[in-house]
Amino acid sequence: MNRSDDKKKMLTTMPIGKLLWQYALPAMLAMSASAILNICDTIFLGRGVGLFAIAGLAVTFPLMTLISGIGALASVGGTMQTAIHKGKDDSEKALTVFGNVFSVNMLLGIILTVAGLIYQTPMLKAFGASDVTLPYAQDYMQIILLGSTITISLVGMTGQMRAAGHPRKAMVAQLLAVLVNLILDPIAIFVLGWGIKGAAIATVVSQAVGWIYLLCAFLTKDHFVYFTKEALMPRMSILKDLFAVGISPFFTNLCGCGIVILINLTLIYQGGDDGDMYIGTYAIIQRITQFLVMGVAGLGQAMQIIASTNLAAQEFARVRRLLMTSIFIATGIMTFGYFFVTIFADPLSALFSTEARIVDLCVPALRIGLCTFPFIGSQMIAVSFFQAIRLPKTSMIISLTRQMVFLAPMLVVLPNLMGVNGVWWSMALADVASVTITWVTLWYQTKKLCV
User: Fold this and answer.
1) Could you give the CA distance from residue 227 to residue 106 in angstroms, rounded to a whole number?
2) Shortest CA distance to 46 belongs to which of 356, 447, 352?
3) Are 59 and 128 contacting, i.e. CB atoms less than 8 angstroms apart?
4) Which of 86, 103, 130, 337 has the fewest Cβ atoms within 10 angstroms?
5) How confident is the model at residue 5 (pLDDT cuts 50, 70, 90)?
């Protein structure tokens, strides 16, 4: 039995709890480490440059969300396809999927870089940049755009490495990038005095290190997928399958980009003279909550790979057990995170800035915005599950319903009634509504599994 057969047998026979632990832990550690890096990055900026630098960083969040969406466009579907082909022992098709994911991601990254550099100033102003925060946002955005090809390609290769049955190598690549960034960040900001530019340079260089590590790994034939010249040529039939799955997270991120812009503009309007400070506060909240969300996102990625392989092998009972176990773990993570953050909201907020005012702004926002987090974990797993069972439209509808049907109207109405706190309550109430819809949809879809 070759290594590919061993991996397939493990995915379809090993006890779900043990299997999920083996696959999910590396992904969760890597994603959480990435979130910790973003937290440290923001702390360094706040203490080394100032709160307006954090606000400038927040202005670029729509761009970062867009980059994530473009990265998911081919990568999510590619990960699912490779996992399915692995379940069927079809290495030839898996190689073609891998090559197409790599080629398309590189092309998308180049297009984004060129378009972004041309239109960066009007984009940033549309994102909510003021005269004070625009220079910071420009310095950061220019460098991030130059490295966006590497960023998008790294997402694809990481997913392919997990789908090929090597979650630890995918984790090593991400942790390597995090470690390099943590070393370079304080040097660039505090020692060299490069400010927010230094933070951006550290980010791009660190991602390039992780990218090179995976590139070298895929140049050998030791994995289920690897580089071949023939597979790098884009094929319409392959791209159609990739985009059919990836369109859901892409549109979700695209709408998320619009929501972040709306939040920024609302904070500027409702915050008055403190508008930039409120945007900085929003950046801090995002960084803190991202740590919890990224851990569950890593769990969801691992669950997708296991579910896809077992579906291909028609192990429907295992798929259902996998789903329930993942939801249980995700709910536990988010519940613990909620209580931890709300209890220690004051010292957590104070980490990011020497200004006492920032604590006054962050603490109520954290306690309001996170009040629904114990329920969010199940929704995140459900969205990943729908993608794994080839229901990308269902996944997309749930995500878009939360953002466009509930959150966007609330952001228009509630802040006019409650001021800035209306922004935080809009997020919480939108989560309640969308989670309810998710639970109903998940119950309906799981009934259709042949268990």
Assistant:
1) 14
2) 352
3) yes
4) 130
5) low
